[in-house]
Design a protein that fits this description.
Keywords: Amino-acid biosynthesis, NAD, Oxidoreductase, Serine biosynthesis. By secondary structure, the chain is an alpha/beta fold. The chain has four domains: about 1-95 and about 285-305, NAD(P)-binding Rossmann-like Domain (Rossmann fold); about 100-275, Rossmann fold (3-Layer(aba) Sandwich), CATH 3.40.50; about 315-450, 60s Ribosomal Protein L30, Chain: A, CATH 3.30.1330; about 455-525, ACT domain (Alpha-Beta Plaits), CATH 3.30.70.260. It contains 18 helices and 22 strands. The chain has helices at about 15-20, 35-40, 55-60, 80-85, 100-115, 115-125, 150-160, 175-180, 190-195, 215-220, 240-245, 265-270, 285-305, 320-345, 365-380, 390-395, 465-475, 510-515; strands at about 1-5, 25-30, 45-50, 70, 90-95, 145, 165-170, 185, 200, 225-230, 250-255, 275, 350-355, 400-405, 410-420, 425-430, 435-440, 445-450, 455-460, 480-490, 495-500, 520-525. The strands form four sheets. It has a seven-stranded parallel sheet with strand order 8-7-6-9-10-11-12, with helices on both faces. The protein is elongated and about 110 Å long. The two termini are about 35 Å apart. Bound molecules: 1,4-dihydronicotinamide adenine dinucleotide and 2-oxoglutaric acid (AKG). 2-oxoglutaric acid binds next to loops.
């Protein structure tokens, strides 16, 4: 039974799939103080949060069983992603599930600003009738600058177009073509400052966007501009905004999100030209059901079928790429497991190369599988696909991944080389159409070996009788040989044998083999059964 903790107010309807699933037990404890959360987090396999719970490194220190942190929403800035990644915890979110609600709130905020609705409401409900005080402006034919043309920015732009506004969009990913198709103009931040009557921000809060709208930027804006932030507190510097509101440079601001939440900047909150809401962008029945439903379904999939769709700390790959990579996923981990056994010690440097068709795909998932295979040998079960890169760096191991779309004799080919001082071990592998996975290179020798559970790697001199002596020694220990491959550099020179065996060959067997005339080294290489495909 997997234990799920829900530590923010999340829609029960959206959580139905988890409540009804026999393998999941859900504890709902919204509003837990951090120290209480830290005290109980160790009992849980997954944590579901909105934006209130701060999932800090300190809390994660105790999260020994946690495999998933699910953000029922978009922004993950309340989660210490790095700390989660280090611990191998998958962080997922629900992108898109609250897009429409956030875009609709943005439009409501813009209209409220243009027509002074909140202040007019407050005055009228007090019994006043101040028709002259609340003269507004039309949005029709005004220019709206949208900073961040992702999902929400795009929906806002579409809605604003129907109000007859001219839209200037800024986003590093916005192309002229897409802007043209949408009926908007691609603009720079400075062009937005100079021309926009309304500016709305829809970026995540990241290093590049923190304080994006600051004193310097506000000084460049059109006097009387109106500014909206329904994305994240901190994208607009609150104190700079207050200064610009006081000077009249900014005519009004509508703010849903704050530098600290609950909001406490009274100069901003009480300013007469400011409209504020308590982070309500996603607070609709529909958005809350959708975000909870999406993360519930994904948590079930992760635990039941290991399929991850929206991980923030894992490479995102399309279904089509996933299909192409699928046959290589287990092979990649096997290559790591074999390479580290061949090296017999921890590597100082890992080199991974992809050649042929596979080099044209996004291969980070395969690299993570290779690294997992390598690192698990010394670090055990703490290694997973999430933390593999981190752990490698933590261990001070250098790495290099190269890609060459030119084929190396196979449609796709992967090679892993581990170095430590002058020692090196390498494994090259491919998938042969119709035949499955094959190891085709071992320590620079060409071989053709199916990755099976029990492998024996022998280094010997290329002298007559070697194969017979190895075969009869294994026979003495009742070990049946499945396949045998021999590779040599030169006639009479150094050679290798790679055998697949029906059982393990350890201890005395290896001692017996190493005592054979002409045999330099014998190494038993093991692949975990669950990682080995049924022989075809
Ligand atoms: N107020 C609320 O309750 C809600 C707030 N949000 C916030 O809205 C923001 C946007 O959400 P989505 O549109 O779903 O995300 P998205 O990922 O679809 O779009 C974000 C866009 O920002 C762009 N961007 C990144 N850096 C930029 C920069 N320096 N300048 C300009 N653009 C930049 C990206 O290229 C991307 O296109 C997020 O911060 C999210 O947390 C989302 C939902 C509800
Ligand atoms: O959960 C919420 O209400 C906040 C939504 C939000 O800010 C987000 O999804 O980024």
């Amino acid at each position: 039974m997997y234990k799920i903790l829900v530590s923010d107010a999340i829609s029960d309807t959206g959580l139905t799939a988890l409540y009804e699933h026999p393998n999941f037990a859900v504890d709902k404890k919204p509003g837990l103080p951090p120290e209480e959360l830290k005290g109980i987090i160790g009992e849980y396999d997954a944590l579901i949060v909105r934006s209130q719970t701060q999932v800090t490194e300190d809390i994660l220190e105790n999260a020994d069983n946690l495999r998933v942190i699910a953000r029922a929403g978009v922004g993950v800035d309340n989660i210490d992603i790095q700390a989660a990644t280090k611990k191998g915890i998958i962080v997922i979110n629900a992108p898109g599930a609250n897009t429409i609600s956030a875009a609709e709130l943005t439009m409501a905020m813009m209209l409220s600003l243009a027509r002074n609705i909140p202040a007019a409401h407050a005055s009228t409900s007090e019994g006043k009738w101040e028709r002259n005080k609340f003269k507004g402006v039309e949005m029709y034919e005004k220019t709206l600058g949208v900073i961040g043309m992702g999902k929400i920015g795009t929906e806002v732009a579409n809605r604003a177009l129907s109000f007859g506004m001219n839209i200037l969009g800024y986003d590093p990913y916005l192309t002229e073509d897409r802007a043209h198709q949408m009926g908007i103009s691609k603009a720079s931040l400075d062009e937005i400052a100079q021309e926009a009557d309304f500016i709305t921000v829809h970026t995540p809060l990241i290093k590049e966007t923190k304080g994006l709208i600051n004193d310097e930027y506000l000084a460049k804006t059109k006097p009387g501009v109106r500014i909206i932030n329904c994305a994240r507190g901190g994208i607009i510097d609150e104190n700079a905004l207050v200064r610009a509101l006081n000077s009249g440079q900014v005519a009004g601001a509508a703010i849903d999100v704050f530098e600290t939440e609950p909001a406490s900047n009274t100069e901003l909150l009480e300013h007469p030209h400011v409209v504020v809401t308590p982070h309500l962008g996603a607070s609709t029945v529909e958005a809350q059901e959708k975000v909870a439903h999406e993360v519930s379904e994904e948590i079930i999939d992760i635990f039941e079928t290991q399929s991850i769709r929206h991980a923030v700390n894992m490479p995102q790959i399309s279904g089509e790429t996933q299909k192409k990579l699928q046959p290589y996923i287990d092979l990649a981990e096997q290559m790591g497991i074999l390479a580290i056994q061949l090296l017999k010690q921890a590597p100082e440097r890992v080199e991974i190369s992809y050649a042929g068709e596979i080099a044209m795909e996004s291969t980070d998932l395969l690299t993570r599988n290779i690294l997992k295979g390598i690192l698990t040998h010394h670090l055990g079960d703490t290694v997973n696909l999430i933390n593999a890169h981190h752990l490698l760096k933590d261990q001070g191991v250098a790495s290099n991944v190269s890609k060459n779309p030119k084929s190396k004799g196979f449609a796709s080919y992967i090679e892993v080389t581990l170095h430590r001082g002058d020692n090196k071990a390498n494994i090259g592998a491919t998938i042969l159409n119709g035949y499955g996975a094959r190891i085709v290179k071992m320590n620079d020798y060409r071989v053709d070996v199916r990755p099976e559970s029990n492998l024996l790697y022998i280094k010997h001199h290329d002298i007559p009788g070697m194969i017979g002596r190895v075969g009869s020694t294994l026979g003495d220990y009742d070990i049946n040989i499945g396949t045998m491959q021999v590779g040599r550099a030169d006639i009479g020179g150094e050679a290798i044998m790679v055998l697949t065996l029906d059982k393990k060959a350890e201890g005395d067997v290896l001692v017996g083999l190493k005592a054979l005339k002409g045999l330099e080294d014998a190494q038993y290489l093991e692949l975990p059964n669950e990682k080995v495909a049924v022989p075809n």
